[in-house]
């Protein structure tokens, strides 16, 4: 007689049930399903344009330079200034972002580093500071409450 290494819930494993729950949570929270690479790329381009033309000026940033448009492999999407302070800003439409190189570069250049989370349906956004030495950012439930609504 052999034993199963996975706990089963009905006909699915615990890992499958958790994955299904996470996908449902993502859809409820962000308003879209996890999608293909092509959809994510198009959404990324649109979100960066929205950030450059609408969100960053609305938040009071000036001298906005779209770094990822200049160099596709730049560690951050934008360089901007606000109140005589300099910022690196990374744009994402996901609930988490891994930014080890941009975080290190911001620390070395003495820049403030932020992640701009935009909902994939472009209805709201959140600017979240990345603490020094932190290599990844997660937008949790508390952050979702603080999201600002975009005017259409």
Low-confidence stretches: none
Radius of gyration: 18 Å
CATH topology: Trna Endonuclease, Chain: A, domain 1
Strand ordering within the main sheet: 3-4-5-7-8-10
Question: How many H/I helices?
Answer: 5
Bin the strand percentage: 25-35%
Calculate the terminal CA-CA distance, rounded to whole Å.
62 Å
CATH architecture descriptor name: 3-Layer(aba) Sandwich
Can you characterise this structure?
- By secondary structure, the chain is α+β, with helices and mostly antiparallel strands.
- It has a single domain (35-149), classed as Trna Endonuclease, Chain: A, domain 1 (3-Layer(aba) Sandwich).
- It has helices spanning 14-30, 37-58, 67-70, 100-108, 141-145, and strands at residues 8-9, 12-13, 62-66, 78-82, 85-92, 96-98, 112-118, 124-129, 136-138, 148-149.
- The strands form three sheets. The protein has a six-stranded mixed β-sheet.
- A hairpin with a 2-residue loop joins strand 1 and strand 2.
- The radius of gyration is 18 Å and the shape is globular.
């Amino acid at each position: 007689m052999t034993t199963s290494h996975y706990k089963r819930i009905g006909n699915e494993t615990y890992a499958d049930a958790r994955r299904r729950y996470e996908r449902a949570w993502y859809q409820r929270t962000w308003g879209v399903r996890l999608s293909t690479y092509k959809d994510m790329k198009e959404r990324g381009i649109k979100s960066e344009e929205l950030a450059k033309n609408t969100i960053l000026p609305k938040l009071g940033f000036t001298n906005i330079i779209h770094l990822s448009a200049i160099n596709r492999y730049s560690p951050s999407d934008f360089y901007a200034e606000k109140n005589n302070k300099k910022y690196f800003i990374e744009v994402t439409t996901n609930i988490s972002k891994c930014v080890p190189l941009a975080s290190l570069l911001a620390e070395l250049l003495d820049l403030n580093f932020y992640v701009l989370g935009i909902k994939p349906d472009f209805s709201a956004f959140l600017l979240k500071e990345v603490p020094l030495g932190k290599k990844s950012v997660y937008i949790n439930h508390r952050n979702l409450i603080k999201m600002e609504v975009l005017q259409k």
